[in-house]
Amino acid sequence: MAAANLLKNKKILIVDDEPDVLEVLGELLPMCDVTKASSFEDAKTLLRSRTFDIAILDIMGVDGYGLLDITINKKIPALMLTAHAFTPDNLEMSIRRGAVHYVPKEEIRNIREILTDVLESIEAGEDPWVPWQERFPPSYFEVRWGPVFWDTIKEFPKLFRRQRKKNTKSSDSEPG
After folding, report:
1. pTM of the predicted model, to two decimals?
2. Cα separation of 26 and 37, whole Å?
3. CATH number, domain with residue 56
4. DSSP H or E stretch at residue 176
5. Phi and psi (nearest 5°) for 161?
6. Closest Cα partner for 10 from 18, 21, 25?
7. Among 8-12, 126-130, 142-146, which is the least confidently predicted range?
8. CA angle centred on 68, ends 109 and 157, rounded to 5°
């Protein structure tokens, strides 16, 4: 299976304040080297002392955006995972702050495929938000957020392009 091969031995940091979420994600990713943290401080310590290929960060309960800032500084791609913070504002903030994906907890069962999409995009030098847009079309969000989502989504294509340019510029300016 392609997903298992790409994910094999990837070092993944998973941060969530809900023990059952940490357990489920660990069970769904047996081919990976998973490290779990249930608090901001524990995750911050791990991020400062270890290397990871990718991080999965809960938004609420562990200051996911604070951890996102740390992962970006360490060049670790991060997915934002959320249930209670599943709002247009948090989606936009995740994009603007540099996350590579935004995962509703109800989609946790698909985490292998989602991680594979992200890693394949990154390895190919492509925008990881493109497969996200295919996986979660506007109709998905209209069901969750109502027709007002269409007013919000009008800005998303510009936001995606702007973020892609920002990511490209920062990686181009990295010292070799």
Report:
1. 0.80
2. 12
3. 3.40.50.2300
4. none
5. -65, -45
6. 25
7. 142-146
8. 75
